[in-house]
Write a structure and sequence with these properties.
- It is built from 20 helices and no strands.
- The termini are far apart.
């Protein structure tokens, strides 16, 4: 009997133990499942706060910056070589012809800029870069082989069309592929590329006065980066904004994954859909941009570019050698200093763009440029003579270039591409930059003649006044955009217009 009781008790204990353990396993598995769900929920909460990696989009922006490099190169390529070109092609001493060689590419740039918005919306940002490279290759070859003034002018005109197409497309591309936290720095990177192109053209042009025909080499060299731009852009990402606006949502998601990483695709697409509805690229007419509800942002963009050019910056870049030589400063030393100041300012701007903000840099930049032109006016007056005038003029010019590179150079293209609504961004950018090229053209064409007619003192005073007008304009009209997505900026501008 005792053995039977022991067996029954043992059996009962084993059954109870198994039942208890089974319940405990159920409880444990339920807790594990709840814990797993909790972790997933926490992860989903945390993911949006993780910033996209800037390394993914950097290589795409770097390739696009070759367009900015070419822009800087072709602006500066005639600085050191203009005298040699004029002697070889038979127009030496004709200041109007020399001004035309400098400015004709700006006329071509106006044409390229006017069509850039429709090209960028029609074939996409990638193909636009490749179309930008083509006339630069053809035009550089024509300039390098020209035997007359007309051949040089035709080559420079071709180069100009590529120069006009490049800046608006690179501004669009950087704004649309960059994470908001580093968009300012990437915009600064394109300005650094412009500086490197300008410095490269100045350094390559140094032997032009000693070596006959060296100026032809200077034009041939520019074909290399133009070819690189056309080839490497083939493997770069297309703008997800353009793809989405064209109704190619799946491709836009794939490009976002390439640029930002898989975990950021859904938030990026959700935010993109808040403003861009995939309603086609031809929905906005030119008349609506000029006279309609978008006139205000177009006015801000066009005026900012106009003031940038009326500050006199490109007169400095085009004719710095002539101005420095008038004070007995060797052009190679002067141009090296100009290039270093431009590059240094651009690097500082890239670092500060997403910390201090766009507006602060613009205000400080235009103020510094106005002060620099004041030094130029004093140097050209009777109060300064000899070495004093030289130090004031050279120092003022270098300070002017440094101040420009800190804000007035890199910020306008970036901030305008940020404040323009997505459905008009490409076309409105084209119009704003067309204004830029028109004023750039006339400054380059008439600077030397105006210097002869009204003198340096009055001319530099005019540039300084425009710098001060720019300070007032920026203070009143420019919205700070640092750290904001393009959609957040668009909503903020709509709210500002409503008040």
């Amino acid at each position: 009997m005792r053995s039977v009781k022991r067996c029954s008790l043992a059996s009962f204990g084993e059954v109870f133990y198994r039942f208890a353990m089974r319940g405990r396993q159920r409880v444990a598995s339920r807790e594990q499942m709840l814990g797993h769900d909790k972790d997933e929920n926490l992860a989903s909460v945390r993911l949006p706060n993780v910033k996209p990696s800037w390394q993914r989009s950097l290589r795409h922006v770097a390739v696009a910056s070759l367009s900015s490099f070419l822009y800087g190169y072709h602006i500066g390529v005639v600085n050191e070589t203009l005298e040699s070109i004029s002697i070889d092609l038979g127009f030496s001493g004709n200041t109007m012809a020399e001004g035309l060689v400098v400015s004709i590419c700006l006329g071509g740039a106006f044409v390229g800029s006017m069509f850039s918005g429709w090209i960028a919306d029609g074939v996409g940002r990638k193909r636009s870069f490749q179309l930008c490279a083509l006339p630069m290759i053809i035009g550089a070859g024509m300039s390098a082989t020209s035997k007359s003034l007309w051949g040089m002018l035709l080559g420079r005109l071709f180069v100009g069309t590529g120069m006009g197409l490049g800046p608006p497309v690179v501004a669009l591309y950087v704004a649309e592929v960059s994470p908001p936290a580093v968009r300012g720095a990437f915009g600064g990177l394109t300005q650094i590329a412009t500086c490197l192109g300008l410095m490269g053209s100045l350094f390559i042009g140094i032997p032009a006065k000693e070596i006959v025909g060296w100026w032809r080499i200077c034009f041939w060299v520019s074909i290399i980066p133009a070819t690189m731009l056309a080839i490497f852009m083939e493997i770069c990402a297309e703008s997800p904004h353009w793809l989405f606006k064209s109704g190619r949502t799946i491709e836009a998601e794939a490009e976002f994954e390439k640029l930002l990483g898989g975990v950021h695709v859904k938030p990026a697409m959700t935010e993109l859909s808040k403003s861009d509805r995939g309603d086609g690229t031809d929905s906005v007419k030119l008349s609506e941009l000029i006279c309609g509800r978008h006139f205000r942002v177009l006015f801000i963009g066009s005026t900012l570019f106009a003031l940038q050019q009326l500050s006199g910056i490109n007169a400095v870049f085009y004719f710095s050698s002539t101005v420095f030589e008038s004070f007995g400063v060797p052009s190679d030393i002067a141009n090296t200093c100009v290039g270093i100041c431009n590059l240094l300012g651009s690097i500082i701007a890239m670092i500060l763009m997403d910390k201090l903000g766009r507006k602060v840099l613009l205000l400080g930049s235009f103020l510094g440029m106005g002060l620099s032109m004041g030094l130029q006016v004093i140097a050209a007056s009777s109060f300064a003579s000899g070495f004093g005038a030289m130090y004031l003029s050279v120092g003022g010019m270098l300070l002017f270039v440094l101040s420009f590179a800190l804000g007035a150079g890199p910020v306008p293209c970036l901030i305008i591409s940020e404040i323009l609504p997505g459905n008009i961004r490409a076309k409105a950018m084209a119009i704003c930059l067309a204004v830029h090229w028109v004023i750039n053209f006339f400054v380059g064409l008439f600077f030397l003649r105006m210097l002869e007619i009204i003198g340096a003192q009055l001319l530099y005073s005019s540039f300084g006044i425009f710098c001060l007008i720019a300070v007032i304009f920026v203070k009143k009209y420019i919205l700070e955009t640092k750290g904001k997505s393009l959609q957040e900026i668009e909503i903020a501008l709509l709210a500002q217009e409503a008040t």
